[in-house]
Amino acid sequence: MKIAPLFVIILFYCMPLFGQSRVLTGTISDAATHEPLRNASIYNRAENKGRRSDSLGRFHIPVGSGKIMIVVSMVGYTPLTITTLPPENEDLTIQLTPEAQKMQQVIVTNKRGKYRNKDNPAVELIRRVIAARDLNRPEAFDYTTYEEYDKVEISLRDIDSKKLNKRILKPYRFLFDHPDTLSGDTSRYYPVYLEERLSNNYLQKKPLRVKQIVTAEKKVDYGDLVDTRGVSDYMNTLFSDIDIYSGNIMLFTNQFLSPIANVAPTFYEFYLGDTIVIDGQKLVRLNFIPRNPNDFLFRGMLYITLDGKYAVEKLQMTISKAINLNFIKNLHIRQDFQRTPDGHYYRVSSDASADFSFTAKGKGIHGRKLVAFNHLVTDVPIPDSVFATMDQHPDPLNKPDSFWNEHRLEPLAPGEARTYNNIDSLRHLKTFVRTKDLINLFVAGYKSAGKFEIGPVNTFYSFNTLEGFRAAFGGRSTPAFSKRIWLDGYAAYGFADQRWKYNAGVAWSFNKLSDYGYPLHYLKFNFQHDVKIPGQELEFVQDNSFLSSFKRGVDDVFLYNDIFRIDYIHELPSHLSYGFGFKYWSQQPAGSIQYIQPQKDGLDTITNITTSQLSAQIRWAPHEKFYQGRVYRVPFPNQYPIFSLQYIAGIKGLFGGNYSYQDLNLSIFKRFYLSAFGYTDLTLSGTYVAGKLPFPLLAILPANQTYIYQPDSYNLMNFLEFVSDHYAGMDLEHHFNGFIFNKIPLLKKLKWREILTAKVLYGGIRSENDPGKSPSLMKFPLIDGKASTFTLGNEPYIEAGFGIGNIFKLLRVDAIERFSYLDHPMAPRYGVRFQLKFDY
Questions:
Q1: Which stretches does DSSP call E strand in 268-425?
Q2: CA 116 centroid distance within chain
Q3: Residue 834 and residue 801: Cα distance in Å, rounded?
């Protein structure tokens, strides 16, 4: 027993001697110029592991203690095989020799005459690649498993050192002490955002099942200033998975046609280049350019195998500067594929980077997404239990640095390695806390005040015909007050109606996130005493804000409301959310509205309608991504539909409710991508109200009398113009992304974008709810003695428009025409609406 501790100590020190693998590190450079080579392939044949060199040519790769065979290769260079290791703790210096015929950087064009597909050997080759496309995809295998490493980085580029010496920036100087550089690039890059993720991926062909299990994740954290998850989703949306074997490739929220899509020969020109040999494999370079440089297409080169499989072994792509794409400069895409023992090729790395700038000469921001793949296993059955497991391991965020050093498929550059600590130090900097406060005030409209924040400031001043000048003041609590209890409220006063309005809410968070954070899971109680326009639905513009004060036509229909609500909302990781609610609503007509109820002895004026209702709702948005702001969610649309269903039951007698009714609402949204022709947004909606009800409790169709374009409203419909107890609507909006304007010489330089919109609404009202057919019902309101509220008849309501977007890269202007019900009082036939929106 006395010698046991000594034995343990000896065993501990001797453990490294028993078969432990070592990590081989080194640098790769050009033997002629001595420039570091970025993205060179380092492949350990003995263990079937691969790595890529970073921007400085550095690499690290695990090697066993037995016989080794490391193959270092890069297109345009003679491959090098290493069979002996350098001494322990000593880096390996590798120099690759350029081949006699180096890869040309300029696309070769046909100088003999007009380009044509007929009798063109390059087109014949690409047709064979297209024919073999499905056989060379991962989905070609019955089962596929692999490890994936993702790295997303945002860097500031070429910061002026003189500006850093200014007093206001001196506290942040430590962020710029260690810039990174890229091979062949003299620019300096200063990382400000970094995230990494490791995952195990499983694919089954029949039936199709896909599973990704995140094993480790690491990202910078700016605290409550930035929605880190939203930034991650945003960057991964801009740099979506670039699958060359897919017919279309999503990039910067736009769809680009792949050079090996079925219709690629129609939109691309192809030219044969040199033939090279890598690892004994014969490849041919196939250059491609867009037929129209203004279309959403790529230009670059593919390296195609000549072994009968016609697979892509390597690709380099960029886009034309003439493309109608905002803020994007210097896009580069590089992908490498590796041959499996059975002759198939699988992707081992995908490296996409771009510079973003608001001005043509600005240095701007550099974004990069690297995806590397390892440990590919094919045609080995995957247990059903794998597809039933959770999407991530427990505590994927709590991996030590040693874990990442061992498992990264590309080492971090010096500047990248300091990013996590730099941002952590930044969060605790007093000057940054003050700056963050100003940013929140400007972007979200809230000003910090200890455990609370004041705002939103854009609602503190507004005006309308009922209240005149309206002054307001409000705020809400912050996590410093409580992570479980969240408070919000405001008070307002109208100087014309001389009435106070107010709102107070308290929420209990089940997951210690606010009632606007993701994922939502809260129970909220709220009481509101305020004025509202019936039927007004605003998107990204708050009620009673300064911008919503400007309206067209007669703006004199209002309701005074007392609303008490209880809402339970729960969002699930699958982006399925559900909720239950109770609403007590007491409404009083105001402005030009009067509630006139026929009686046996004449007409009676109703001053108040009270309802009590229960509700249930469900929403499913598969693969939904968005940026969670402090006021709104900014969605990043994709090709997946969004379903929303709500059921409401009014209960007579419950807390004084005057009516019983049922209300069912359904909405479906879907975006359709049409490659070079842009995309179409389609929204289908419908409502059915059951019960005999006065018109204020029917479906008041959403109208818009502001000058701001509202996608979810009818922009030439007047407030309270239509009521229905059943309707179905279709909203269609097609964005051409400059497809037409890009072909007009005088317009293509402006980079404007064409938009077509159409809104169609069918509906009606049952006889039991039509005051014209049921004399006992409440009358529709009159304005100046004339009817102002109507029902939909046999004719649908239709409005359509043509818009021009991307004016000054910010402004959208829509000219809209209304085609039906033009005989209604003050019904506009034409209108112009505006919208501020950033688009890529």
A1: 268-278, 281-290, 298-305, 312-319, 328-339, 345-356, 365-378
A2: 39
A3: 12
pLDDT in tens, 176-211: 888 887 655 667 888 999 999 999 999 998 898 999
Q: H helices of 659-793, where?
A: 745-748
Q: Exposure string (b/e) for 160-178, b if CB count within 10 Å is 16 or more? A: eeeeeeeeeeeeeeebbeb
Among 608, 742, 591, 614, residue whose Cα is nearest residue 677 = 742
Distance CA 549, CA 558 (A): 13
Instruction: Convert the pLDDT of each residue in 586-635 to its tens digit.
Output: 999 998 888 988 887 778 888 999 999 999 999 999 988 888 777 778 88
Reference 635, options 681, 686, 676, 570; nearest CA is: 681
Name the strand (E) or helix (H) holding 588. Answer: strand 576-591
Among left, alpha and beta (phi > 0; psi -120 to 50; other), residue 328 is beta
Q: By the 8 A CB rule, do 788 and 712 touch?
A: no
Q: How far is CA 662 from the centre of its chain?
A: 36
Q: 661-673 and 830-836 as β-strands: parallel, antiparallel, unpaired?
A: unpaired
Handedness of CA 118, 121, 126, 130 (dihedral sign): positive
424 DSSP 8-state letter:
H
Q: Which tens digits make up the pLDDT trace of 545-557?
A: 666 666 676 678 8
The answer to whether the CB of 537 falls within 8 A of the CB of 667 is: no
Q: Structure tokens of 420?
A: 């996590």
| Sign of the CA dihedral running 358, 362, 365, 370 | positive
501, 530 contact by CB (below 8 A):
yes
CB under 8 A, 24+ apart: contacts of 432-440: 432/171, 432/172, 436/223, 436/225, 439/225, 440/225, 440/630
Backbone angles phi, psi at 55, to 5 degrees: -65, -20
The one-character DSSP state at 387 is H
Checking phi first, is residue 737 left (phi over 0); if not, alpha (psi -120 to 50) or beta?
Answer: left
Torsion of the alpha carbons at 396, 400, 403 and 404, rounded to the nearest 10? 80
Contact between residue 103 and residue 285 where contact means Cβ atoms under 8 Å apart: yes
Tokens of 546: 């300064």
Instruction: Please choose, from the candidates 312, 324, 317, the residue with its C-alpha nearest in 3D space to the C-alpha of residue 354.
Output: 317
Structure-token pair, residue 335: 């992908």
Q: How many CB atoms lie within 10 A of CB 784?
A: 8
Output the six-digit token pair for 836. 């501020």
Max CA pair span of the chain = 110
794, 787 in Cβ contact below 8 A? no
Question: What is the H or E stretch that residue 256 is in?
Answer: strand 254-257
